[in-house]
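Regression test case RT-17, inverse folding.

Input:
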């Protein structure tokens, strides 16, 4: 429907404008038929009256509201209006009816100003200017913002196919490794919930919402209903008027919502316009501002040209060949205004206007604004300009940003997910009659760590357990993560705190803080169980056979020496050295002496009786040689035997484990330790993985404590590959456990958080602060060495000295005691025998002789003993009788 608002005042047909005349100018203005056009009309009227007041021009604006689909009407209207003699055409606001208007303006060479985003714009060879930022500029601004926000994966929610044009640049800049962009068409509305629910299930967090400003609030309202407006979501709205909506119902929404705008409501011209049009400058729509700027631009150029030459505007016809003669000149002046030219209206609402050679607006500042969380409205975070298309000039300093985050953190209660595993998180054993709730149910390193962090950041937290108790592994078949990582990805928690290892694969899915603990994979093994040494352990270095053979040899050799000595004349000696021709020769090598000689040599003590004959010496030498070999072998073996019994370890490294198959080894199923062996390129570890996988029964354990238990009960037939921190914890408490070898790799535990967690920097800083202040060491010491029976084994070890115990040498003492005992018995027997002989020889009673000899024996000062006895005491007859 064609509706003419202003009466067409045909005053200037066929006129020539001279210097001092009041000049009438007709402008044809095509607007849309929406509610916002009213404000545009007010803006136009206002502009025209300013022009009238400030110049000699009486400008009449012929405003035609047109429906989007009325192409035929548009054609007719434009042809009708050019017959009245128009100096310029403005609008329309939509691309649908633009073509017909642009073709008329182009063929009649009437300057034409467009104010909408036109993806199909062909400006070459035409008289058309487009004041709206070009499709390319908007697309580049959007792509730069996406890049700066570090969005690797996002969903484009769009309303029509123009979105693809707007996003062209942003899509071009994507790298091959970036995850796919998802496109979702919004549909016709007004119920967008089905599509929003689908988007929600895709688990994407970042969205570009490309729909008309009028629909934005409704879409976001419904997004809020389906929980797509949480604090970890972020949106970029592409409509340049999004900031001008009434956002009051979204005060307090924690989602990051950013958009672009070309009208700065805080600029002097916007404030001035707001006052004149009696509206809030924040609500000025870009199309109104662009129309205002277009009129300003044209009238300024017209004035500049009219100052140089006379301009004639006559009626034209769509069916004629006549064209607007000065159209070309005005076009050129708009493109390149004289240096001292000042705009007639007070300033441009969208900033200085420049065009490229095709008449497309260039060099426009696009502001990036974000919805404030606690207050009403948007604030500028940066600006984008086509001169530097790959960068955003930020207005908000990082300090300001940090301060805001600090404040936000104080309002947060972080949901922390964890799993039970000592000493990181353990369930508290309730004292009698007490029931624990909330965080009080747990204790451990992770709880203390969070408490310290929140002490620094002034935040609060609530712990909960992950239902499946797993750390987090990706299942390629189901295409999903389990455990703590899955929990974070499903947005059921903000943070995951426990002994969660930072791995590359996990890092792609979630974010991690800097590590709060460093570690590596190592081997947990059982110490050799120490059997108490046997009493006769000194006999251990030689086998029983050897001992028996030695004893037999000893006896045989002793006998041989005895026999050989009897046969050998050199061993028959003169007993009286002063008598050269003795009547008898004596041989000292009786059985006793022979045994003594052989015993002395095997004990490495020697003997002062030595044979003289060649053959006896040869036998003795042979025995000495045998003794030398046997004693040194015994000594060497004894040393090795004692050392071995103390540190009997069969494996010392992962390589040793890999090279054998007697000791089985495994790791925690579904943990990063197993993943390390699974994904490694190092042949030894890969071979270990193959061994582990093929082992039957399985060598994998579901928890670390299970692995520890298996090591303890398998009698050194099983080793568990575990992280060094956990090995340290276990071997502090169970002294039968030992870490074998060093660390196979090097990694760290970090606090996992949802991707793009905005408080990550604050958490990192808190961790660094704790590291530098020694708090992390204190916590580790507390939970490793002090709590739950820690420090037990280090104490034990220190008391255990590196020397032989009584047990080891007890046998030697026993042999000594037996020797002494035997010697005492023999000495007693010898003594009694001697007393008996004395009693018989001296004809005295046994008792008297015993008394006499005993008295002498205990008189330790008597150094000499008489051979002839002193006169004996009178023998008592009764005494003799008793004998
Ligand atoms: N800390 C490991 C993880 O995060 C568990 C392990 O493999 O020992 O998966």
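Golden output:
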């Amino acid at each position: 429907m064609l509706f003419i608002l202003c009466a067409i005042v045909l005053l200037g047909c066929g006129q020539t404008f001279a210097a001092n005349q009041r000049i009438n100018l007709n402008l044809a203005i095509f607007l849309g038929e929406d509610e916002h056009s009213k404000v545009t009309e007010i803006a136009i009227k206002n502009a025209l009256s300013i022009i009238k007041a400030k110049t000699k021009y009486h400008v009449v604006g012929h405003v035609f509201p047109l429906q989007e689909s009325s192409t035929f009407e548009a054609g007719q209207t434009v042809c009708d209006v050019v017959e009245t003699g128009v100096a310029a055409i403005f609008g329309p606001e939509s691309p649908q009816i633009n073509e017909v208007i642009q073709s008329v303006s182009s063929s009649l060479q009437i300057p034409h100003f467009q104010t909408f985003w036109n993806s199909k714009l062909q400006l070459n060879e035409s008289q058309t200017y487009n004041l709206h930022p070009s499709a390319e500029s908007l697309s580049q601004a959007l792509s730069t913002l996406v890049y700066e926000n570090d969005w690797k994966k996002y969903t484009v929610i769009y309303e029509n196919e123009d979105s693809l044009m707007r996003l062209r640049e942003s899509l071009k800049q994507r790298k091959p490794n970036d995850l796919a962009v998802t496109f979702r068409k919004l549909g016709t509305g007004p119920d967008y919930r089905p599509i929003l629910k689908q988007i929600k299930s895709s688990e994407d967090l970042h969205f570009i919402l490309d729909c008309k400003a009028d629909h934005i609030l409704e879409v976001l309202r419904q997004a809020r209903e389906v929980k797509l407006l949480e604090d970890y979501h972020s949106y970029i709205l592409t409509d340049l008027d999004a900031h001008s909506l009434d956002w009051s119902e979204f005060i307090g929404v924690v989602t990051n919502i950013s958009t672009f705008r070309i009208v700065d409501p805080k600029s002097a011209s916007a404030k001035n316009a707001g006052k004149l049009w009696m509206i809030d400058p924040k609500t000025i729509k870009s199309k109104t501002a662009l129309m205002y700027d277009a009129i300003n631009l044209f009238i300024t150029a017209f004035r500049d040209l009219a100052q140089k030459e006379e301009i004639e505007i006559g009626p034209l016809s769509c069916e004629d060949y006549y064209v607007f003669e000065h159209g070309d000149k005005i076009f050129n002046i708009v493109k390149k205004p004289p240096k001292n030219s000042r705009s007639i209206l007070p300033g441009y609402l969208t900033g200085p206007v420049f065009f490229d050679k095709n008449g497309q607006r260039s060099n426009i500042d696009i502001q990036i604004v974000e919805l404030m969380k606690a207050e009403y409205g948007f604030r500028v975070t940066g600006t984008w300009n086509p001169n530097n298309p790959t960068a955003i000039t930020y207005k908000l300093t990082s300090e300001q940003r940090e301060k805001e985050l600090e404040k936000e953190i104080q309002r947060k209660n972080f949901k922390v997910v964890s799993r039970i595993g000592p000493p990181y998180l353990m369930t508290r054993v309730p004292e009698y009659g007490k029931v624990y709730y909330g965080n009080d149910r747990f204790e451990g390193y992770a709880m203390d760590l969070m408490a310290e962090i929140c002490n620094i950041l002034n935040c609060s937290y609530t712990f909960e357990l992950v239902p499946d108790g797993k750390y987090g592994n990706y299942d390629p078949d189901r295409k999903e993560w389990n455990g703590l990582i899955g929990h974070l990805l499903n947005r059921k928690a903000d943070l995951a705190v426990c002994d969660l290892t930072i791995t590359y694969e996990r890092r792609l899915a979630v974010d991690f803080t800097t590590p709060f603990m460093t570690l590596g994979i190592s081997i947990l093994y059982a110490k050799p169980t120490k059997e108490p040494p046997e009493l006769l352990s000194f006999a251990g270095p030689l086998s029983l056979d050897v001992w028996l053979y030695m004893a037999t040899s000893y006896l045989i050799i002793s006998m041989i020496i005895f026999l050989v000595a009897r046969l050998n004349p050199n061993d028959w000696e003169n007993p009286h050295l002063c008598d050269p021709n003795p009547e008898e020769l004596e041989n000292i090598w009786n059985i006793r002496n022979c045994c003594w000689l052989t015993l002395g040599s095997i004990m490495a003590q020697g003997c002062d009786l030595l044979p003289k004959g060649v053959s006896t010496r040869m036998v003795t030498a042979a025995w000495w040689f045998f003794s030398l070999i046997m004693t040194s072998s015994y000594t060497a073996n004894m040393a090795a035997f004692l050392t071995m019994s103390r540190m009997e370890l069969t494996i010392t490294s992962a390589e040793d484990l890999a090279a054998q198959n007697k000791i089985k080894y495994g790791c925690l199923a579904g943990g990063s330790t197993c993943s390390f062996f699974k994904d490694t390129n190092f042949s030894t570890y890969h071979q270990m993985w193959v061994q582990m996988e093929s082992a039957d029964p399985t060598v994998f354990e579901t928890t670390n404590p299970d692995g520890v238990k298996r090591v303890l009960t398998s009698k050194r037939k099983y080793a568990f590959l575990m992280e060094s921190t956990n090995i340290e914890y276990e071997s502090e408490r169970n002294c039968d456990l030992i870490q074998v070898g060093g660390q196979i790799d090097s990694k760290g535990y970090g606090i996992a958080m949802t991707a793009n967690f905005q408080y990550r920097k604050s958490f990192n800083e808190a961790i660094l602060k704790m590291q530098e202040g020694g708090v992390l060491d204190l916590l580790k010491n507390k939970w490793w060495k002090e709590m739950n029976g820690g420090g037990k084994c280090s104490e034990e070890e220190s008391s255990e000295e590196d020397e032989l115990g009584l047990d080891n040498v007890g046998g030697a003492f026993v042999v000594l005691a037996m020797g002494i005992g035997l010697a005492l018995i023999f000495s007693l027997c010898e003594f009694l025998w001697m007393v008996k002989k004395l009693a018989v020889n001296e004809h005295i009673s046994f008792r008297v002789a015993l008394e006499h000899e005993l008295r002498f024996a205990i008189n330790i000062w008597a150094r000499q003993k008489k051979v002839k006895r002193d006169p004996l005491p009178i023998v008592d007859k009764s005494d003799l009788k008793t004998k």
